[in-house]
């Protein structure tokens, strides 16, 4: 496994097409539109709605097509594109790949952000002169803080992989892993924001139960999570060490931590992530 940190150095990318312009595609697009990123040949996007396509009218770097207005929009978008990001719903992927297969440029790289759809599925629907890289970004991409897992396909070169890594470095950190680990990664970083939001939700309820207003509880809880995360990132220390520094012997925090540890959080997180992994495998099998 290799990892790359987010960068603000100049990034140069070739022409890119996004098929599907949902929240994840738009988050990646926002990364590409940062001042330090150059996309030679421009960015094209497709979605169903002409109204959604019109949202890009004021952005000269993006050409947006709507399939409801142009049945050939997807094929038009991928023509000449070096990177083709497939960001439609997983169930739509096979038909979309069949639609664009003979319009893809030789040597282009098709990038999947479709959860549960394997490299083998992509490669089965695409010509041999096209490579595939499967990815798993998470929702903090919207604020440039994603953790994205990236896995090479059987036909992708080192240069293809590096290109996709650069693409996702525009929205956060990147981990390069074998595809066999990508579903497991999704149970940690992919689902992880939901786990954090659940903890924030529950601690907020506890604060309200102790007499604080919802607004006061939000300041305390959200500020504490944000501050703790930034302290962890800035210090470079192990989280266990930072926890020990907050936990004075025989103090209040020590008593609270003891209650949490009695709940066997380690086993609980193992069971939760195992359940997510089992469901990821069901989805991959079409269940």
UniProtKB/TrEMBL annotation:
Positions annotated to bind NADP(+): 19-24, 87-90
EC number of the protein: 1.5.1.2
UniProt-listed GO biological process terms: L-proline biosynthetic process
Positions contributing to NADPH binding: 74
Superkingdom as given in the UniProt entry: Bacteria
Keyword Cytoplasm: yes
Protein name stated in the entry: Pyrroline-5-carboxylate reductase
Lineage per the UniProt record: Bacteria, Bacillati, Actinomycetota, Actinomycetes, Micrococcales
Gene that this sequence comes from: proC
